[in-house]
């Protein structure tokens, strides 16, 4: 199609007919504009993919899975150590290694630790206040899942704005050519150009 438009432009230029030259330019613009829009959209998509490489699983997601599995073990009657070790053995990753290490050394269960590891802090608070472990751990897992869901909803709300750019680059130029092009050609014909 682009070769046909280019040939029409060359032929009209050789003949010297201004109306045919303008029509060939409009045809060429009609063909090139979507290609330019597609190129820009693909470039933006590639840039976005390189900039925001998706991770297989986020540390927050791993910690939420660990908390849910630990809560499941606690509800089955396991001790916290057994439930945490079973959860850490089931989930690969850095969060499970930290949990396994913390359970093995007893870090976070001693009074006065300044640990900022989430699950261990929740367990320490529950043990220090005498609260049952299962509701505390399952509540922590629910909080992590709600935070993750909130982040995903925020990203989903931004999607229409991101889709606006390809829409404007691909559809709007063709629409303008189809609506304004005939009026411009008619005006030039009336003016005798």
Keywords:
rod-shaped; 82% helix; 193 residues; mainly alpha
Structural summary, described in words:
It is a single chain. The chain is an all-alpha fold and 193 residues long. The chain has two domains: 2-54 and 169-191, no CATH class; 59-156, no CATH class. Helices cover 82% and strands 0% of the residues. The protein has eight helices and no strands. The longest helix has 38 residues, at 133-170. It is rod-shaped, with a radius of gyration of 32 Å.
Order of helices and strands: HHHHHHHH
How many distinct folded domains? 2
The tally of helices reads 8
Number of strands: 0
Gross geometry: rod-shaped
Mean pLDDT: 79
Radius of gyration: 32 Å
Query: Which class best fits the helix and strand makeup?
Result: mainly alpha
Q: How much helicity do the residues have?
A: over 70%
Segments where pLDDT lies below 50 for 5+ residues? 110-115
- Main beta sheet: strand number and arrangement? none
Please state roughly what percent of the residues sit in beta strands, choosing from under 5%, 5-15%, 15-25%, 25-35%, 35-45% or over 45%: under 5%
Separation, N- and C-terminal Cα atoms: 27 Å
């Amino acid at each position: 199609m682009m070769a046909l438009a280019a040939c029409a432009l060359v032929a009209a230029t050789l003949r010297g007919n201004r109306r045919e030259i303008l029509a060939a330019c409009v045809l060429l613009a009609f063909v090139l504009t979507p290609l330019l829009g597609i190129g820009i959209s693909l470039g933006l998509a590639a840039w976005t993919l390189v900039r925001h490489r998706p991770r297989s699983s986020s540390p927050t997601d791993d910690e939420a899975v660990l908390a849910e599995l630990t809560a499941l073990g606690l509800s089955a009657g396991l001790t916290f150590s057994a439930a945490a070790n079973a959860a850490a053995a089931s989930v690969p990753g850095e969060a499970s290694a930290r949990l396994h290490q913390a359970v093995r050394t007893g870090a976070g269960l001693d009074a006065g630790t300044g640990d900022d590891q989430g699950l261990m802090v929740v367990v320490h608070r529950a043990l220090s206040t005498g609260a049952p472990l299962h509701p505390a751990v399952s509540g922590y897992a629910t909080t992590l899942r709600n935070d993750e869901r909130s982040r995903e909803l925020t990203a989903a709300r931004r999607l229409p704005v991101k889709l606006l750019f390809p829409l404007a680059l691909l559809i709007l130029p063709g629409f303008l050519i189809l609506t304004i092009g005939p009026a411009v050609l008619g005006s030039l014909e009336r003016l005798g150009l």
